Amino acid sequence: MHCKIPIVSWGLTTPIGENAPQTALMFRAGVNNFTESPFIDGFGEHITMSLVSTLPMSLVGPQRMVQLGMEALRQTLRSIPIGEKARVVLILALPERYSGDSPQGGLNQQGELLMQLVRDELPAPIRSSSIEAYPHGRGGGAFVIHRATELFQAKQADYVIVGGIDSYYEWGAIESLLKSDRLLTQDNLDGLMPGEGAAFLALAPPRIRESESAHPTIAYVGVGKEPQTVLSEERSSGRGFTEALKEVVTPLRNNRERTDYWITDLTSELYGVKEFQILIARFADVLGTKTLLSTPLREFGDMGAASLLVFCILAVESWYGGFAPDKTAICMGGSDSGARGVILLQGRTQWAS
Predict the structure, then answer these.
(1) Half-sphere exposure of 13 (CA within 13 A, CB side)
(2) Three-state SS across 56-78?
(3) Could you give phi then psi for residue 13, rounded to 5 degrees?
(4) Of 240 and 102, which is predicted with more confidence?
(5) How far out from the chain centre does Cα 335 lie?
(6) Contacts for 5 with CB less than 8 Å, ≥ 6 apart
(7) How many Å apart are CA 1 and CA 220, to the nearest integer?
(8) What does each C-alpha distance from 330 to 8, 73, 220, 286, 293 come to in angstroms?
């Protein structure tokens, strides 16, 4: 989907930084914050996690996630003027484990609790805003941006604030990793490091002329569905990411251009590595010859539903800091159950309408 949406403000909370500039700096320096958690595995060993050190260890689950999210949201709201009559919609990407079991989808009890906590904690400027939630895990960032684009096209919002919140710091999430042998340890290198984080972007309506704004822009967003889940016996077909990428790289292919800036959700899990190997062959024509893949989740720990929007903010910070490898960036994220999302960002004006 063609978006052309300016990113006017953003906020970030991660295990390696209390805000976006600090996180970008620490990530560039190769810093991590892996630490022993109170959770204990079947061998009596403390499970290593990547955690936000400013939050108490006693805070778990939805209560912890809302604190992560509100700090990032407050950062986002500080630099945008929201009037009393402004129509603001808040759209959240949430963990898949908070998805409802009914055919209609929705949220389960934990998800509904989180949403109620978010409503109770909303800052004054957006206290009356409507809220939507998409429990699509790592791919969720693309789905919330897709929805924001629909709202702008229908002229139903003056601002849309998209956010992603997740934390593995609850026993249910850790237990799931243990049962499926997906926890990264010294004895299991085919796994991931559980983490947490929150990211928010304030989006304005698409600009009419490319010259109207110097803001970084969400140019295209694509979503897809991978039939082989992370727990399938068969490896990924690459179908979901292929579907999402085909639409997103349209401007690059039309202009016979490439990008050297790819931010992916690769961890140490072989499932994702093999999936990306398929994509390299299919999209070699837009993969820059100087590309060095950026893999933040190997430094941050897996931030689940926050991941894709964290990647967008890292790209934006790199443009403002002057160290981005290219003027466009492709951010990719996929959930355990197959939701796939891809976002194309522009650091400055590239293509006319």
Answers:
(1) 26
(2) CCCCCHHHHHHHHHHHHHHHHHC
(3) -135, 120
(4) 240
(5) 11
(6) 145, 148, 149, 152, 203, 204, 205, 206, 217, 218
(7) 5
(8) 19, 24, 10, 10, 10
10 Å Cβ neighbour count for 316? 23
Query: Do 92 and 40 contact (CB within 8 A), yes or no?
Result: no
Buried b (16+ CB within 10 A) or exposed e, 117-129: bbeeebeebbeeb
- Name 346's bridge partners: 217, 328
Neighbours of 37 (CB within 10 A): 17
End-to-end alpha carbon distance in the chain: 13
* 0.70 exceeded by pTM: yes
Summary count for the chain: helices (H), strands (E): 10, 11
As given in the structure block, the two tokens for residue 171 are: 């026993």
Whole-angstrom Cα distance, residue 221 to residue 171? 33
Question: CA 97, CA 120: separation in Å to the nearest integer?
Answer: 22
Q: Are strands 88-93 and 159-167 parallel, antiparallel or unpaired?
A: parallel
Cβ partners under 8 Å of residue 190, min gap 6: 182, 268, 269, 270
Query: Residue 10: how many CA atoms within 13 Å on its side-chain side?
Result: 27
Residue with tokens 């994702």: 272
pLDDT tens-digit readout, 262-291: 999 999 999 999 999 999 999 999 999 999
37: left (phi over 0), alpha (psi -120 to 50) or beta: beta
Is the per-residue pLDDT at 331 higher than 70?
A: yes
Of 102 and 239, the one with more pLDDT: 239
